[in-house]
């Protein structure tokens, strides 16, 4: 199979919905072999089956279910990927949760669940991927899905924005730590993207129109808007891009007033 990622192997966390799903499907189109991590539940299993049906003919795609906040899941994701395809070239830390809540009402459980999935999960999975890439000795690309929320505040996101700032910082520090192995680490910062995480919030027509009015391109994003940038960072087109943060927000950040 030809494409910008032909012959490469990629693993993606949170890979059966939203941004992760869009990236996985585009990676398959570009010739990569892909493994995706998802929740261990029937709904997620069905979403993976629908991915298999949607994928390009002849695509190589496997699933590794598990709770990505647990270190053993990250280890197993890498091990199963290597067992299936022989190596790991690209890793995308995408899994994340966001439940809007008032700061004064946030419980310990709600806060810790966001930190565990969004930050602990990103750390463990990135470390597992990096260990494999370093062992292989031929470099690699690690991409952390952060958020515009890493750069701005959110009144109902006080438990979420710190985790996304953490993912951005993790990629920056890993770029310093892993450059000697030829491993590049970069972050994508989505703006307002219509996914399962914010569909309820954007169902409010007044709020949706307000958001669209703040975005210079005049629309909220869709998951597929992240796929191209993720291919760029995974491919040789970005072979000297390391420690970077790429906003994918339709111009929202530069238009904030």
UniProtKB/TrEMBL annotation:
Instruction: Report the domain of life of the source organism.
Output: Eukaryota
Q: Keywords in alphabetical order, please.
A: Oxidoreductase
Q: Which InterPro entries match?
A: NAD(P)-bd_dom_sf (IPR036291), SDR_fam (IPR002347)
Q: Offer one Pfam family short name for this entry.
A: adh_short_C2
The reply on keyword Thylakoid is: no
Family to which this protein belongs: Belongs to the short-chain dehydrogenases/reductases (SDR) family.
**Which PANTHER family does UniProt cross-reference here?**
(3R)-3-HYDROXYACYL-COA DEHYDROGENASE, SHORT-CHAIN DEHYDROGENASES/REDUCTASES FAMILY MEMBER
Q: What is this protein called?
A: L-rhamnose-1-dehydrogenase
Taxonomic lineage of this organism? Answer: Eukaryota, Fungi, Dikarya, Ascomycota, Pezizomycotina
Gene encoding the protein: DHG2
């Amino acid at each position: 199979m030809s494409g910008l990622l032909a012959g490469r192997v990629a693993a993606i966390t949170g890979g059966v919905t939203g941004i992760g799903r869009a990236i996985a499907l585009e990676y398959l189109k570009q010739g990569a072999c892909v493994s995706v991590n998802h929740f261990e539940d029937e709904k997620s299993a069905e979403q993976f089956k629908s991915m298999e049906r949607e994928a390009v003919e002849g695509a190589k795609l496997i699933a590794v279910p598990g709770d990505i906040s647990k270190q053993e899941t990250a280890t197993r994701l890498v091990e199963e990927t290597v067992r299936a395809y022989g190596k790991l070239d690209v890793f995308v830390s995408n899994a994340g949760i966001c439940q809007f809540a008032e700061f004064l009402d946030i419980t310990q459980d709600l806060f810790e669940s966001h930190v565990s999935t969004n930050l602990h999960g990103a750390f463990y999975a990135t470390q597992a991927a990096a260990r494999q890439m370093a062992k292989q000795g031929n470099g690699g690309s690690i991409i952390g899905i952060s958020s515009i929320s890493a750069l701005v505040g959110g009144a109902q996101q006080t438990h979420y924005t710190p985790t996304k700032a953490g993912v951005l910082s993790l990629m920056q520090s890993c770029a310093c730590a892993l450059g000697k192995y030829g491993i590049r680490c970069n972050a994508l910062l989505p703006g307002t993207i219509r996914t399962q995480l914010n569909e309820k919030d954007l169902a409010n027509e007044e709020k949706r129109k307000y958001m669209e009015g703040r975005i210079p391109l005049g629309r909220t994003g869709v998951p597929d808007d992240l796929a191209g940038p993720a291919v760029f960072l995974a491919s040789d087109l970005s072979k000297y891009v390391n420690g970077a943060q790429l906003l994918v927000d339709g111009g929202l950040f530069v238009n904030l007033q």
